[in-house]
C-alpha cells in the first residue's frame, strides 16, 4: 500500500505541477489580452456552473472511492445517473440565464450561461472516470489526459483572445478542457460504461453521498458568495481584480490539495480498520504538503508586486493586496483537505456535514461584517475565517485518529518557520535589485536556494523524504 500511495502521489503531483505550470503561462498571456471587466463577467458565470456541477455529481464520486467494494454495476449506474442529473441542471441553467443577465445588468451573461453550461455533461462523466482512477490508483493515465487537456484548452483560448473574442476566449478554454479531459480518459482507461443500471446501488451510495452533497453544496455556495456579492454590490471590474488576485495562490494550493485528496482518500479508505495506519498517513500528508505549499505561497507574498508587474502588467497592480491576502488564506488548505479526507475515509460523512455547517455559520458572520467596509476588508476577514476553520476541521480527528490540532501544528511548524525566514530574505533582497524581470528571477532563484539550504542544515524530515522519492522514481524511469 505504501508503494502505491507514493507512486500515486508522484504521478498526481506531476500531473498537477505540469498542469499548474501550463495554466500559469496561459493565465499570464490571457491577462495581457483581456480586461478586468471581461474576467469579472466570466467569473460570475463560472460561479453558477460550479454550483450546478456540485449538484450533478451528487457526492457519488466520493462514495465510489470510499465504498469497500465497487463493481461495474456501481460505476455504470453512477455514470447514467450523472448524465441524467446533468441534463436536468442544464435545463435549469438554460431557463434561468435571462434572469441572471437581468440581475447583473449584462445581456452577454445569458448566452454565456447557455453555452458554458454544456460542460456539465463531460463534468459528470469525468467525476466517474476520476473515481475509477483514484480507486485503481492509475494516476499516470490521469496525468497524460490532464496534460493534453490543458495544452489544447490553453492554446485554443489564447487563439480566441488574439482574435478578439473577449469573454468567449475564457469560456472556450473551459469547454475545451472538459471535453479534452473526458476524451483522453476514455482513450486511456480500461473502464467503459456498460448497459447496466441499478437504482438499488444508487440509493445505497446516496445514503453516504447525500451528506457529502450537502456539505459540498454549502461549501461551494459560501466559497463563491464573495464573488457573487462583489459582482453585484461593487462591479465586474472589482470581481475581475479579486479573481486575478486569488487565481495564483488558489492554483498552487488547490492543485496540491487535489493531489492529496485523490491519493489519500482511497488509501485511507483501504486502511480504515487500522486507525494507527491512517493517523501515520495523515501525519505524513500534513508534513509533506506543508513543506511544499507554504514556501510557494509565502514566497509569492514576498514577490507579489514584482510578479504582477513583470507577468501581468501595470494595470493589474491593483490586484496585489488581494493576492497577498489570499496567499495567507490558502496557506493551510492542504491541512483542511487531509483532515476532511480522513473523516470521509472513516465513513463519517455525518461529521463532515456538521463541520461544513459550523464553518459556514462562522463565515457568514464574517461576511456580514466585512461587506460593510469594502472589498479588501471583506477578503481579509475571509482569510481570518479560513484560519479559524483549521481548528474546526481538526477537532474531530483528536478522537477519530487520536491526532490533535497541537500535534498537527507541531508537524507543520518546521516548514512554516523555514518559509517565513525564506520569505523575509526574498522580500529584503528585492529592495536592492532594479528591473521587474531581473528582480523576479533573482528573488525566485534565491528563495529556492535558501529554502533547500535551510532544509539541509536543519535536517527537515520532509526534505529527506521527498529527495528519496525523487531518487527512487528517477531510478525507475
From TrEMBL:
Q: Which Pfam families match?
A: Polysacc_synt_3
Query: Keyword Cell membrane: yes or no?
Result: yes
Q: Which InterPro entries match?
A: Poly_Biosynth_Transport
Superkingdom is Bacteria
| Subcellular locations according to the entry | Cell membrane
Q: Where is the major localization of this protein?
A: membrane
UniProt keywords (A-Z) are: Cell membrane, Membrane, Transmembrane, Transmembrane helix
* CDD domains hit by this protein: MATE_tuaB_like
**Annotated transmembrane regions:** 39-56, 77-100, 112-134, 141-162, 174-191, 212-231, 290-312, 362-395, 416-438, 444-467
Topology term for the membrane: Multi-pass membrane protein
Q: Which GO terms describe its cellular component?
A: plasma membrane
Alphabetized PANTHER family for the sequence: LIPOPOLYSACCHARIDE BIOSYNTHESIS PROTEIN WZXC (PTHR30250:SF10), PST FAMILY PREDICTED COLANIC ACID TRANSPORTER (PTHR30250)
Instruction: Report the family membership.
Output: Belongs to the polysaccharide synthase family.
Protein name listed in UniProt:
Lipopolysaccharide biosynthesis protein
Q: Which organism is it from?
A: Candidatus Lachnoclostridium stercoravium
Amino acid at each position: 500500500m505504501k508503494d502505491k500511495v507514493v507512486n500515486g502521489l508522484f504521478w498526481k503531483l506531476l500531473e498537477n505541477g505540469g498542469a499548474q505550470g501550463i495554466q500559469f503561462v496561459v493565465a499570464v498571456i490571457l491577462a495581457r489580452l483581456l480586461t478586468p471587466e471581461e474576467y469579472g463577467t466570466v467569473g460570475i458565470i463560472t460561479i453558477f456552473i460550479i454550483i450546478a456541477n456540485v449538484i450533478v455529481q451528487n457526492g457519488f464520486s466520493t462514495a465510489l472511492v470510499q465504498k469497500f467494494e465497487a463493481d461495474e454495476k456501481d460505476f455504470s449506474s453512477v455514470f447514467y445517473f450523472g448524465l441524467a442529473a446533468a441534463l436536468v441542471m442544464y435545463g435549469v441553467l438554460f431557463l434561468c440565464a435571462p434572469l441572471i443577465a437581468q440581475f447583473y445588468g449584462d445581456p452577454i451573461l445569458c448566452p454565456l450561461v447557455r453555452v458554458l453550461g454544456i460542460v456539465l455533461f463531460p463534468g459528470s462523466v469525468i467525476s466517474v472516470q476520476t473515481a475509477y482512477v483514484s480507486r485503481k490508483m492509475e494516476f499516470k493515465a490521469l496525468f497524460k489526459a490532464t496534460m493534453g487537456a490543458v495544452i489544447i484548452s490553453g492554446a485554443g483560448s489564447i487563439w480566441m483572445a488574439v482574435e478578439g473574442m473577449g469573454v468567449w476566449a475564457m469560456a472556450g478554454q473551459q469547454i475545451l478542457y472538459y471535453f479534452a479531459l473526458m476524451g483522453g480518459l476514455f482513450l486511456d482507461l480500461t473502464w467503459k460504461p456498460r448497459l447496466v443500471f441499478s437504482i438499488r446501488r444508487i440509493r445505497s451510495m446516496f445514503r453516504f453521498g447525500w451528506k457529502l452533497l450537502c456539505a459540498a453544496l454549502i461549501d461551494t455556495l459560501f466559497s463563491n458568495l464573495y464573488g457573487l456579492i462583489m459582482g453585484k454590490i461593487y462591479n465586474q471590474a472589482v470581481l475581475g481584480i479579486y479573481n486575478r488576485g486569488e487565481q495564483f495562490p488558489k492554483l498552487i494550493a488547490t492543485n496540491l490539495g487535489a493531489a492529496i485528496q485523490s491519493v489519500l482518500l482511497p488509501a485511507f479508505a483501504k486502511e480504515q480498520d487500522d486507525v494507527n495506519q491512517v493517523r501515520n498517513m495523515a501525519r505524513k500528508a500534513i508534513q509533506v504538503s506543508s513543506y511544499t505549499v507554504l514556501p510557494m505561497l509565502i514566497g509569492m507574498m514576498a514577490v507579489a508586486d514584482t510578479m504582477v508587474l513583470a507577468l501581468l502588467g501595470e494595470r493589474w497592480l491593483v490586484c496585489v493586496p488581494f493576492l497577498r491576502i489570499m496567499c495567507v488564506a490558502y496557506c493551510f488548505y492542504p491541512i483542511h483537505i487531509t483532515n476532511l479526507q480522513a473523516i470521509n475515509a472513516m465513513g463519517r460523512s455525518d461529521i463532515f456535514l456538521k463541520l461544513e455547517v459550523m464553518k459556514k455559520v462562522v463565515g457568514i458572520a464574517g461576511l456580514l461584517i466585512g461587506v460593510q467596509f469594502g472589498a479588501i476588508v471583506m477578503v481579509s476577514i475571509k482569510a481570518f475565517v479560513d484560519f479559524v476553520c483549521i481548528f474546526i476541521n481538526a477537532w474531530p480527528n483528536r478522537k477519530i485518529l487520536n491526532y490533535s490540532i497541537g500535534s498537527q501544528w507541531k508537524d507543520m511548524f518546521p516548514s512554516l518557520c523555514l518559509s517565513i525566514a525564506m520569505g523575509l530574505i526574498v522580500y529584503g533582497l528585492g529592495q536592492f535589485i532594479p528591473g521587474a524581470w531581473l528582480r523576479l528571477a533573482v528573488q525566485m532563484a534565491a528563495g529556492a536556494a535558501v529554502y533547500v539550504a535551510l532544509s539541509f542544515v536543519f535536517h527537515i524530515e520532509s526534505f529527506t523524504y521527498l529527495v528519496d522519492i525523487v531518487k527512487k522514481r528517477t531510478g525507475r524511469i
